[in-house]
Amino acid sequence: MMRIDNNRPTERRPLGPVMLDLEGTQLSAEESELLRHPAVGGVILFRRNFDCPEQLLALTQAIREADDRGLLIAVDQEGGRVQRFCEGLTRLPAAARFGLLYEQDAHRALEAAREVGWLMAAELRQLGIDFSFAPVLDVEQGVSRVIGDRAFATTPGAVAALASAWLEGVQSAGMAGCGKHFPGHGGVAADSHLELPEDDRPLAALEDADLLPFRRLIAQGLEAMMPAHVRYAAIDPQPAGFSAFWLREMLRGRLRFDGVIISDDLNMAGAGVAGAPAARALAALQAGCDLALICNHREAAIAVVEALVDGWTSESAARLQRLRGRAGLDLNNAKCRQAALSAIDDLPL
Predict the structure, then answer these.
(1) What DSSP line would sit under 149-208, residue for residue?
(2) pLDDT tens digits for 168-213?
(3) 15-346 belongs to which homologous superfamily?
(4) For the chain, where are the E strands, in sequence order?
(5) Would you tell me how many other CB atoms lie within 10 Å of the CB of residue 314?
(6) Smallest Cα–Cα separation from 229: which of 259, 270, 261, 260?
(7) Please, which pLDDT band fits residue 312 given cuts at 50, 70 and 90?
(8) Phi, psi angles (nearest 5°) of residue 79
(9) 149, 264, 265, 290: which is the annotated catalytic residue?
């Protein structure tokens, strides 16, 4: 068991720079202690943490009771093949289905994206989840083994339009959005969960295509961004998630993004170039990330929080507050719920 220093006054204890995972459907005593570590700022939940809505609500309440800072709670609830919570919640469509409708009727597709974005967020907010790691802003280019139908469309303009509408719905439910995978994962075949993908395109090519959806949603007030574990070798030798060029010069500087930058999972093979887990987390924060995500490896998570015990900055801690769930249009609005369910039924297969 780790020794936790909770002697700081409550009002001065910021959220830490690490988001980690849990093992099961209930919070263990060891996990309760881990969550009180000053380096921890949030929890990501997976399918293994979910049995039913009632159990999930009890779990999110237990997480909040474990530490008085009010840790952030997140999940990957994109829809399609990436939906962690299913039983008792709406089965959400893959993003590509909105793109198929967009080719037939752009107005209907945008309305559907807005309504389904609201439904996803409203269901999660009711269960104590602050935000989902979505929308996917990658442009499907017919080569990626991991993106595919997770992308809204095959053209940057359609991705930007549909993701913008989807984000409007999410925000109306009181939830923040997290765009991924900056600056674009759709142009590489490799899966960054298994290896480090290499994208050889020059910056001009990315600016003409992949970056358009990111620019559009940044202008709309997107609250968070997740960089890709992809190396764009013609631009910078470091993968985007460890690159000061991509995070500080491009994302913060040229694109003027002032939201939270959250690393992709540092346990993925694509992050291995940065060394051991603690070194990966330090490299991500030094490059410009506000929050280091480490999943599915408890020993690594403990090493990361111990390495980052003093890793927070007041600027990052302030940004993290923007990801808290807030009041919004909830599931009691029967008209909105029915419109969203009807929109799902009408989407092309």
Answers:
(1) GGSS-SSHHHHHHHHHHHHHHHHHTT-B-EEEEET-STT--S-TTTS--B----HHHHHH
(2) 999 999 999 999 999 999 999 888 888 899 999 999 999 999 999 9
(3) Glycoside hydrolase, family 3, N-terminal domain (3.20.20.300)
(4) 18-21, 40-45, 72-75, 77-79, 82-83, 131-132, 178-182, 224-227, 260-261, 292-293
(5) 8
(6) 270
(7) confident
(8) 115, 170
(9) 264
**Annotation says 193 is catalytic:** yes
pLDDT at 11: 52
Residue-range domain boundaries for the chain? 15-346
In this structure, the strands spanning 77-79 and 40-45 are unpaired
* Three-state SS at 260: strand
293 secondary structure, DSSP code: E
Residue of 51, 76, 191, 193 marked catalytic:
193
Task: Say how far apart CA 40 and CA 100 lie, in whole Å.
Answer: 41
Averaged pLDDT, 111-128: 98
pLDDT at 190: 83
Are 85 and 139 contacting, i.e. CB atoms less than 8 angstroms apart? no
What pLDDT was estimated at residue 12?
A: 57
**Given 3-state DSSP classes, what are the helix, strand and coil percentages for the chain, each rounded to the nearest 5?**
45, 10, 45
Over residues 278-302, the pLDDT tens digits come to 999 999 999 999 999 999 999 999 9
Whole-angstrom Cα distance, residue 118 to residue 45?
A: 20
Distance, CA of 64 to CA of 57 (rounded, Å)? 11
Give catalytic status of residue 191 as yes or no.
no
Backbone φ and ψ for 132, nearest 5 degrees, come out as -110, 145
Burial of 273 (0-12, 13-18, 19+ CB in 10 A): middle
Q: pLDDT category, 4, cuts 50, 70, 90?
A: very low
Nearest to 344 by CA among 174, 117, 86: 117
Is 77 strand, coil or helix?
strand
Identify the residue whose tokens are 């075949």.
Answer: 189
Q: Which two tokens stand for residue 126?
A: 């009711």
Token digits of residue 102:
């967009």
**Per-residue pLDDT for 48 more than 90?**
yes
